[in-house]
Amino acid sequence: MTVRVENLVKRFGNAGGPAAVAEVSFEARPQAITTLLGPSGSGKSTLLRLIAGLETPDAGRVLIDGKDVSALSPQHRNVGFVFQSYALFKHMTVADNIAFGMKIRRLPKAQTKARVAELLELVQLPEYGARFPSQLSGGQRQRVALARALAIEPKVLLLDEPFGALDTQVRVELREWLVTLHERTGITTLLVTHDQEEALELSQHVVLLNQGRVAQAGSPHDLYDHPADEFVASFLGGANVMKSRVSDGEAKLGTKSVPAPSGARDGTPVQAFVRPHNIRVRRPDGEDPAELGKIERLTRVGGYVKVYVSLPSGESIVVLTSKTDLDALGVEPGDPVAVEVVDAKVFVQSYSI
After folding, report:
1. Contact at 8 Å (CB) between 267 and 228?
2. 332/305 Cα distance (integer angstroms)
3. Which of 36, 43, 45, 89 is most buried, with most CB under 10 Å away?
4. pLDDT confidence tier of residue 224, bands split at 50, 70 and 90
5. How far apart are CA 205 and CA 47, in angstroms?
């Protein structure tokens, strides 16, 4: 079941003001998870609500399975919607919450009862049908919300930051569970999140939004390894920004030089986006330039260490290394280090980050 969005526009308030969603187009592949990713205010949730029919677009259209549903009400689009807040009915049991949509559609009682039992098994809560939402954990409530959305057998499942209200461990567990659930149901799914790790782990397709527009769309690996511009490079992977200038077709970064952007002339200012795991630090040797970095501080994160390094240019960067490698290096705050860039995405400088 394909979802296609064509030139969607949505404004709130002043008609002449900036659009919350500005001429957005993309296609969500059938039986895949497509993630709408971006910072707060990028238009992710508004876009999802437009697809669901909970908001009316000012322009553009939404097609589900090739049919234009832009003028249809939410109940006639056959989509399941899961909110971050669960939105369960507190006075109803788990089973009644799941059955709600089927009862509205006046499905036979025997069919409804069988479907509820099937869904409780699917979300791994077979013994919880008689409980109330207040008797469940946050993760269990979210599973019930997903079961309720699936009860009407929707063509498309829409998830608006479904794990946002949960603690880290529960989020990780539910991500793994959602992958398994998706493999079993095969339903076309659109997921809204601002969590990069969540998007990269769950998705087959990512639409990265910035200020209401599509910055880049593609597979998670495409966006991560081949960012289209500075915004994509800086948003994904927590990249360091290192400034340089082109000289003989290269840009000097630390003790290394990397190819400059195509067509960039000597003297052109460039910005290199370097992820923390693509930088190495080592003790200086006699062949290094006089200007070296200096370790500002070390922060242990499990089996890894974040090494904060100040550069002669005044910039500060973060290097991620294993504790074992750092112990072997034997450096402390205040020590000079040579900085080696393993990989970088270099763009002609067009704005300040």
Report:
1. no
2. 12
3. 36
4. very high
5. 16
Question: pLDDT value at position 31?
Answer: 93
Backbone dihedral angles phi then psi of residue 143, each to the nearest 5 degrees: -65, -40
Residues whose CB falls within 8 Å of the CB of residue 163, separated by 6 or more in sequence, listed in order: 142, 170, 171, 174, 175, 193, 195, 198
CATH placement of domain 238-348: 2.40.50.100
| φ and ψ at residue 340, rounded to 5 degrees | -115, 125
Question: Where along the chain do its domains lie?
Answer: 3-232, 238-348
Question: Which pairing describes strands 213-218 and 279-282: parallel, antiparallel, or unpaired?
Answer: unpaired
Find out whether 59 and 2 touch, Cβ atoms under 8 Å: no
E strand or H helix at 179: helix 168-185
Reference 154, options 127, 125, 115, 193; nearest CA is 115
Note the pLDDT tens digit of each residue in 257-310.
Answer: 888 888 889 999 999 999 999 999 999 887 766 568 899 999 998 889 999 999
- Contact between 200 and 220 (Cβ < 8 Å): yes
**In b/e form, how buried is each residue of 172-209, taking b as 16+ CB within 10 angstroms?**
eebbebbeebbeeeebbbbbbbbbbebbbebbebbbbb
331: its two tokens = 């450096």
Tokens 């992977």 found at: 237
Record: fold of 3-232: Rossmann fold (3.40.50)
